[in-house]
UniProtKB/TrEMBL annotation:
PROSITE patterns: ZF_C4H2. Residues 204-244 form the C4H2-type domain. GO terms for cellular component: nucleus. It comes from the Eukaryota. It holds the Pfam family zf-C4H2. It comes from Brenthis ino. This is C4H2-type domain-containing protein. The lineage of its organism: Eukaryota, Metazoa, Ecdysozoa, Arthropoda, Hexapoda. One of its GO terms (biological process) is positive regulation of neuron differentiation.
Length: 244
């Protein structure tokens, strides 16, 4: 065998060795590619599931936001109803107090005439009548009676003087003038009520609002976090840092 043949055989052996090493590396790369592709496909299927779950969560979040919006609307409506009911109650109580101021002296006159002219007992008070919703302390001024002889002086029985009868008739025809009714008891007992109503009306003015970038609901302009979806709120016009 000549030296040229030996060199040719040596080159072939070196080439076979290189081919074998590169073939092994190629197979290793091919397996890695297949593994990565399979993993990528699996991740893609998982990603589709995750996106579907995210859509369901977004739908659930919006349903809760709508529920919260409805709850807030119901709360606002109930606050309006409560305010109107309180105003109506105050108005009714004030009217009752004003009417009672007219009723009290007239009842005292009638009781005095019944006792002096006819010898009858007094009429029952409002809280003494059966089934009456009025309690004894509803109108504290009701316990005060008129002074004796407030209706034309005492009347001396059935055969009394003509002057006494005339006084009684005068009491029926022209009762003594009464003072004008005082302001409603509700406001007189609460001198700062008008100021309180003014303060409440000022507090109930709607605050400055902005739209949440996540759920697009109206929130307070200075709220750092949306109270509905809990997303962080970023100002569209952030304050610039002051230069030192």
């Amino acid at each position: 065998m000549t030296a040229e043949n030996e060199r040719e055989i040596y080159h072939k052996l070196e080439a076979m060795k290189e081919i074998r090493n590169k073939t092994i590396t190629l197979e290793r790369l091919k397996r890695s590619i297949l593994n990565e592709v399979r993993s990528g496909d699996q991740e893609g299927r998982c990603l589709a599931q995750y996106k579907r779950e995210m859509e369901l969560l977004q739908q659930e979040k919006m349903s809760h936001v709508e529920e919260l919006r409805q709850i807030h609307a119901d709360i606002n409506a109930m606050e309006t109803v409560i305010k109107q009911t309180e105003e109506s109650m105050s108005r009714k109580l004030s009217n009752a107090s004003r009417l009672h101021e007219d009723y009290r002296p007239l009842k005292a006159e009638v009781d005095l005439l019944r006792r002096q002219c006819l010898g009858l007992d007094r009429l029952p008070d409002l809280h003494e009548e059966e089934g009456s919703p009025i309690t004894p302390d509803r109108f504290p001024a009701a316990t005060r009676a008129l002074p004796a002889g407030g209706v034309g002086g005492p009347v001396g029985g059935v055969g009394g003087s003509v002057g006494g009868v005339g006084a009684v008739g005068g009491a029926f025809l022209a009762p003594a003038p009464r003072k004008p009714p005082p302001p409603p008891a509700f406001r007189s007992a609460n001198p700062g009520l008008d100021q309180d109503f003014l303060t409440v009306s000022l507090r109930q003015q709607p605050p400055p609002m902005k739209s949440c970038l996540s759920c697009h609901q109206q929130i307070h302009r200075n709220a750092p976090i949306c109270p509905l979806c809990k997303a962080k709120s970023r100002s569209r016009n952030p304050k610039k840092p002051k230069k030192k």
